Amino acid sequence: MNNNKEVIETFHYEGVLEILEEKYGKKFMIENADLFYLWYCVKRKHIRENREDMIKYLKDKNIIDDTRRILSTVSRYYRFREVLPEMSGMAQHRLNRGNQYLSPIIPFEKVGNRMLGIIDDMNKESYSVVDISEGRENKVAVIFKKGGVSWRNDNLHPSEMRWVVDKVKKQRKGVFSI
Fold it and tell me: For residue 131, how far is the Cα from the chain centroid?
């Protein structure tokens, strides 16, 4: 995983800890943070639910530096995995969607009266130009990876359209290549 995605996943995990603290109390959350971290990594598919993979991940990433504690955490995971919460497909989708906004292709910036950015549509064909100035997603254009723009908003100011067109020109020079 690249560094930016690690930061975002850490942000999401911290939210999980806050929910657990609110529900079960700070002491419970702190005593089991390692177990919940391992659960989170398995559910987000950072590692497979396999004892050896879990141990290697915790060691290699320096998450836990004591081998005994690593083994204890993995054993506790298997002992309690039946009572650990399930992460629904909708929750996974929301976390992935959050990643799109926290790690945009082109960061959000003020353009005219709008706050525009470009996010990955998570498909092989396009990116979305999104306006978040009203506190919600408003897709104003779609940039096709093969080239071209499909405008989705008739009320764009020429300076806003110019911003999109300039980003498309840079796309051809490899700015969007991932």
Answer: 19
